[in-house]
Amino acid sequence: MRALVVNCTLKPSPEPSNTEALASTVIAALKGHGVEVDVVRAVDLNLKPGVETDMGDGDEWPGVHEKLLASQILILASPTWVGHPSSVAQRVLERMGAMLSETDDEGRPVAYNRVAGVLVTGNEDGAHHVIAELSGGLADIGYTIPGQAWTYWHLGPGPGPDFLDDERGHDWALSTGRAMASNLVHAARALGAMPVPAPPS
């Protein structure tokens, strides 16, 4: 089984990413279940605006699209900015929109029988709103969202320290991340054993 983590931080490599730091703990949990994990830091790529799989002229989305199709599990990881997902996360969802018109050999949308979860960090409140926005978009595209397929970290209302700068709240975020990983893996296995059929015509 394979998983893809798309880190939608606004910080290009090699700048430290709080979102990456929390994601690394979920990645470790996934690997503990025998899952192979790929990571994409979307801000490092030339992802052109649009809703097609290939926007041409140096567009690097097709490589991400290949990784999506090779993975049974997707984790979309985003910081919270002004109470919303990052602009990079929105760009990723928009590009994933092309998958709505792609089907497999049995006529199923290509996101069917794949599971997705959401991971959020931020030094402001709004994590549940970000989880809801991203989960809703992923479900629209066709992903299955298991129960409690998310984790997040922040320290309450208003601005504050970053995940990498403050140990408070880590235990809860890591425990929730382990549950997230377990729920994603077991839901993916269940769908593998009994796939959802193509929508009725």
Automatic annotation (TrEMBL):
Protein name in the entry: Flavodoxin family protein
Entry's Gene Ontology molecular function annotations: oxidoreductase activity
Signal sequence annotation: none
SUPFAM superfamilies attached to this UniProt entry: Flavoproteins
Any one Pfam family match given in the protein's UniProt record, by short name: FMN_red
Protein source organism: Streptomyces parvulus
Domain NADPH-dependent FMN reductase-like, first and last residues per copy: 1-142
InterPro entries in UniProt: Flavoprotein-like_sf (IPR029039), FMN_Rdtase-like_dom (IPR005025)
